[in-house]
Amino acid sequence: MEVIVAKTAGFCFGVKRAVDKVYEQAKKGGAPIYTYGPIIHNEEVVKDLQEKGVRVIENRHELEELSEGTVIIRSHGVGRDIYRLIEERGLKLVDATCPFVLKIHRIVERESVNGKRIVIIGNDSHPEVEGIKGWCRDGATVIETEEKAREFTAEPGEKLCIVSQTTFNNNKFKNLVEIICKKGYDSDVMNTICSATDERQQEAARIAKQADAMIVIGGRHSSNTQKLFEICKKECENTYYIQTLVDLEPNTLPPVDCVGITAGASTPNHIIKEVQIYVRNEF
Fold first, then answer.
1. Least packed by Cβ within 10 Å: which of 78, 104, 157, 233?
2. Is residue 167 predicted with pLDDT exceeding 80?
């Protein structure tokens, strides 16, 4: 049986950078170390860091109760108010926000100050989108579905700045933007989906088209992994979403000639390798 592993599978630049920063701080020891939210959407990595003494702060209220220690901003980024609170509490800040996300923060801050209405194409409840909204002067409109795009209206003479969550489906982004722009609004569209995400999605689709079965590895709460699953499922009916090797039962895959494997940006390489070896040996 042929096994094709996506070259783009696993940690992207931003995630690796963030995880490395946390491990560096954990190695130093000393004052308490916290991450504002799980550093990445991968339970295995978060558990390993917890064993090394790194605690996860889930919300602003928990942050307000801290009086010492280091707070690490994860790759998803946060709003301006969280930076201010960390400073007010006298805590040490380590900013591991992905540079691609920081770029969006600068864009929406600048354009909202210039009077434009910010429209974010993405998932409203995703931490990255919540952080982006935190840099908009007058809030933002978040659109994830065709229905929301069709319902969207702007005031006469209102100028729009449209950006995207970095891990959004590129084809879906273009479709939603087209629906909005057909309304004739004065829109400045910036495709802020990161290049790594776009490359990962395109490669996953190519592999899924030629594979008889497709395995997508990643955390259940990982937005970019969910998008990969949707893309692969569209091209290959036998597509399976797993977090670790434990989720891949011996009888899960049907008898096939070719299996494709890809993984989200928060999936460690050793998990991808374990799945690859298992598939080669067991099927």
1. 157
2. yes
CB 46 within 8 Å of CB 56: yes
Does residue 148 carry a pLDDT above 90? yes
pLDDT at 252: 78
| Residues comprising the chain, all counted | 283
How far is Cα 86 from Cα 81, in angstroms, rounded to an integer?
A: 9
Q: Which of 231, 234, 240 is nearest to 259 (CA)?
A: 240
* AA identity, residue 258: C
- 264 with 229: CB under 8 angstroms? no
Instruction: Identify any residues that bridge with 283 across adjacent strands, giving them in sequence order.
Output: none
Quickly tell me which residue has 């910036």 as its tokens: 190
Name the strand (E) or helix (H) holding 15.
helix 13-28
Q: Which residue carries 């070719």 as its tokens?
A: 258
CB 202 within 8 A of CB 232: no
Residue 206 backbone dihedrals phi, psi, to 5 degrees: -60, -45
CA distance 198 to 228: 10
Q: Catalytic: which of 111, 128, 144, 203?
A: 128
282 flagged as catalytic:
no
How many whole angstroms separate alpha carbon 154 and alpha carbon 185?
7
Confidence (pTM)? 0.88
- What's the CA angle centered on 20, arms 19 and 21, to 5 degrees? 90
Phi (first) and psi of residue 242, to 5 degrees? -130, 155
**Tens digit of each residue's pLDDT (9 = 90 or more) over 211-256:** 999 999 998 888 889 999 999 999 999 999 999 999 987 677 888 9
Query: C-alpha distances in angstroms, 56 versus 74, 83, 173?
Result: 11, 17, 32
Written as six digits, the tokens of 270 are 């050793």
Q: In what order do the strands lie in the sheet with 239-242?
A: 2-5, 258-263, 213-217, 239-242
Q: How many whole angstroms separate alpha carbon 267 and alpha carbon 200?
A: 13
